[in-house]
Amino acid sequence: GQNEAIDSISKAVRRARAGLKDPKRPVGSFIFLGPTGVGKTELARALAEALFGDENAMIRIDMS
């Protein structure tokens, strides 16, 4: 569920900030899928804010 996704993303971000990731590879590539109203956009904005300091620093593709 959503808690598992948040845990996985949180771990990836913590590893990157601690310097434990490969410097030649990105922190991650995240695709959020699911029904309307489960918090995909909110999670993506929070992630962009945490990583880049701007909630608009994300690419959003609407598949509807």
Q: Which band does the percent of strand residues land in?
A: under 5%
Tally of structural domains? 1
Biggest beta sheet attributes: none
Shape, per Cα inertia axes? globular
Helix content: 40-55%
Spatial separation of the terminal alpha carbons = 21 Å
Low-confidence stretches are none
SSE order, as H and E?
Answer: HH
The SS-based structural class is mainly alpha
> So how many helices?
2
- Report the count of strand segments: 0
Explain the overall architecture:
This protein has 64 residues and is mainly alpha-helical. The protein has one domain. 45% of the residues lie in helices and 0% in strands. It has two helices and no strands. The chain starts with a helix and ends in a 12-residue tail after the last helix. The model has no long low-confidence stretch (mean pLDDT 85).
Q: What's the structural blueprint in terms of helices and strands?
A:
Blueprint: H1 2-17, H2 40-52
Compact summary:
This protein is mainly α. The chain is 45% helix and 0% strand.
Question: Which features would summarize this protein structure in a list?
Answer:
single chain; 64 residues; mainly alpha; 2 helices
